[in-house]
Amino acid sequence: MYQTTYHRASSVDEAVKLLSQADDAKFVSGGQTLIPTMKQRLAAPSDLIDLRHIPELKGVSVSGTMVRIGAATPHAQVAGNEALKAVCPALCKLASHIGDPHVRHMGTLGGSIANNDPAADYPAAMLALKATIHTSKRDIAADEFFAGLFEIGWAVGLKYTEGFTRLLPTSLTVAAMAISVGLLAAAMRSLPLGTAYAIWTGIGAVGVAAFGILVFGESASPARLACIAMIVGGVVGLKLVSG
Ligand SMILES: Cc1cc2nc3c(=O)[nH]c(=O)nc-3n(C[C@H](O)[C@H](O)[C@H](O)COP(=O)(O)OP(=O)(O)OC[C@H]3O[C@@H](n4cnc5c(N)ncnc54)[C@H](O)[C@@H]3O)c2cc1C
Q: pLDDT: is 206 or 110 the higher one?
């Protein structure tokens, strides 16, 4: 691992401030994904901002059929929460099957969702339950949050299909296309057509461009990065003006 500076944040505001002050900081929750990635030198953040000691990010609260789970809540606490078991036992069962006891006591819901791995358990549950993801900046419907990911997945997959001649990449690409379009359709239930489609294509365009730079070594010239930043600005602006 490279040298990094550790910070223990005690509030969301402090965590956000620390993030903005550092060169290349990353939040760390359970560290179950990030620390192995750092050990393999696939990530080398200048600063690590620990979110595990922020009271407002911890715990499960249930009010009627509304459930709120703090981002820094470990999987084991979701699995064992009696109030949650009464209204949504499937979510407790799902959490109880994640990894092994160590992963369940350290790994968090927020880390799993932020990590945005389509093979992980929570993202699928968030979609099925029509959850809303609350961030320090905005609230995002789960279908909107994950739709762009599959858009990136199929666009990247397309490169590996070699003109649809390779069976596995072709099957995965077609599946990601179907899921991506399905999620777009779901997002359109709550967003105007132009906003949902622009966000979907915008996230896809930015994600694929970032993948090209990081994985395929494509150009990261200032002009190219500025153009990508304009797409991000446009997507965020569209969402803000659409309410
Ligand atoms: C052996 C093993 C088995 C596993 N098995 C499963 C499994 O069966 N099913 C499954 O779904 N998952 C599994 N996982 C993944 C596990 O659920 C992790 O907990 C999860 O992927 C990441 O959560 P974390 O809290 O450890 O996040 P971290 O590793 O701390 O962070 C992951 C990423 O999310 C960001 N981040 C973390 N918290 C926040 C936040 N609150 N806000 C914004 N960004 C944040 C970090 O900056 C980082 O980029 C497994 C992991 C391991 C090591």
A: 110
52-106 pLDDT per residue, tens:
999 999 999 999 989 999 999 999 999 999 999 999 999 999 999 999 999 999 9
Atom of ligand 1 nearest to the CA of 51: 41
CB distance 27 to ligand 1 below 6 Å: yes
Burial class (CB in 10 A: 0-12, 13-18, 19+), 98: buried
Per the structure block, which two tokens stand in for 154?
């199929």
What is d(CA 24, CA 32) in angstroms, rounded to the nearest whole number? 20
Residue pair 115/126 in contact (Cβ under 8 Å)? The answer is no
Question: What is d(CA 181, CA 184) in angstroms, rounded to the nearest whole number?
Answer: 5
Mean pLDDT of 195-219: 82
Please tell me if the CB atom of residue 31 comes closer than 6 angstroms to any atom of ligand 1. Answer: yes
Ligand 1 mutation pick, 98, 117, 138, max ligand atoms within 8 A of CB: 98
**Ligand 1 atom closest to 117 (CA):** 21
The model carries a pTM of 0.74
Angle between helices 193-215 and 167-187 (to 10 degrees): 150
The three state secondary structure string of 167-202 is HHHHHHHHHHHHHHHHHHHHHCCCCCHHHHHHHHHH
**pLDDT tens column, 177-187:** 888 888 788 77
pLDDT range class, residue 194, cuts 50, 70, 90? confident
Of the chain, the end-to-end C-alpha distance in Å amounts to: 42
| Ligand 1 mean position, distance from CA 167 (Å) | 31
